[in-house]
Input
Amino acid sequence: MNAVAASAATLSGHFARKFPEMAIAWRAEEIPDPQLLVLNEPLAAELGLDTGFLRSSDGVGLLTGSRLPADATPVAQAYAGHQFGWYAPRLGDGRALLLGEVAHADGQLRDVHLKGSGRTPFGRGGDGLAVVGPMLREYLVSEAMHALGIPSTRSLAVVGTGRLVQRETVLPGAVLTRVATSHLRVGSFQYAAATGDTDLVRRLADYAITRHYPAAAEAENSYLALFQAVAAAQASLVARWMLVGFVHGVMNTDNMTISGETIDYGPCAFMDGFDPASVYSSVDETGRYAYRNQPVVAEWNLARLAESLLPLLHEDQEKAIELAVESLADFRRQYSAAWAAGMNAKLGFRGGLEDDVTWPLVEELLALMQEGHVDYTSLFRSLGKAARGQAEPARQLVPDVTAFDAWVDRWRAQSPDADAMDRVNPAYIPRNHLVEEALAAATGGDLDPLSRLLNAVTHPFDERPGLERYAVGAPEDFGTYRTFCGT
Ligand code: AMP
Ligand code: MG
Output
């Protein structure tokens, strides 16, 4: 056994073996001068990986795919997808590889995946590379999401490659090592369905059931149960995004998982001032993926999943469509219920309150916030103090103080639970101006701002002295924030 195999957990190749039609065996490109920029030690431990080893040159080789155990079978995965509503039959991992699966301490498998590992046969016009800023951005935001309790792919490491990559300017290259409960996407099913091979769709669905929804195997109609489980997971996920003010930015069907984890942190952003129309991505010209559209887009994407699964839902296509439509209606109900429950928790409402008490309070607060473009995260966090009788920090955030005071009086009459509020309203999120500051420094070689920001956002509910600047909105001169895709 070589040193790599001896020190690393086994990388099995389940997907590669089971789905040769959807996987191209491929190798990561050699890296001229690898530098480990950030390593997620707690995650490494959960995966049974030794951090001392991962920091060694063999370990960095494992993290970047250049020194794998001899029996590893890295592959580029095939998938299709609707991008901004337009169907692309062959997307796939153009600059990414699935190295294989490892066992997590929870007993489930995790995919270990690379982003920026070189051009694959799915690369089309792209260079197959990634750069330091966006890979650290994915690391930072995915770990923040995880710490917020929101299902997400995880980030194990970012390694600088020492290679220069041409973007708008020349930038330093990097590889992200990503960990996910799987990389099955809505687009994976679209790809399988488009081959016309129903058996492939069935095998993929069986694989998804085994990895994510084993209870569906026991259902009378397992594939309908799979669809319903995905829809329920996405209803809960998107509600969580909305409650925390997260805008994914590129909700194409290839960027929506079957597991219900958030995936592909490209042009994403957290809202500062509350505006349901918020769009950050420079390529989203029509606002298709605006904050307020996310639930409807998720439903649209799920309809594409249902179409791909139709032959499995019922042998009679009319019946299959009926079943899919009924299940999609459940998505709306589940989303609304998850959002309402989450909003009630954010406002500290205790159980037993009637909707006609809580609902007007929620609606009026959101209207006040929208009118005043009030910082979403700061206001909810400061309401925890207001619930304890210190309304001043919240009052300072709202332009219409008279209306706000009246609202606070009515709200406090419901005895909101301040401690419970502090457990769901984060003090620290990856605010856009802080993310940009940390990434600019890291791109220039200074990783300190990144590690300070990581420290704040990976303990988001734990307000700490000295971290005040991480808890406030963007300065006035930060301007209109724009994010860029595909970098
Ligand atoms: P994304 O917008 O990151 O979800 O990527 C959409 C598609 O474009 C996927 O098939 C990616 O593999 C591919 N892609 C993105 N950037 C690159 C790149 N630099 N080189 C090759 N393929 C890329
Ligand atoms: Mg993607």
Notes: Residues 3-180 form one domain.
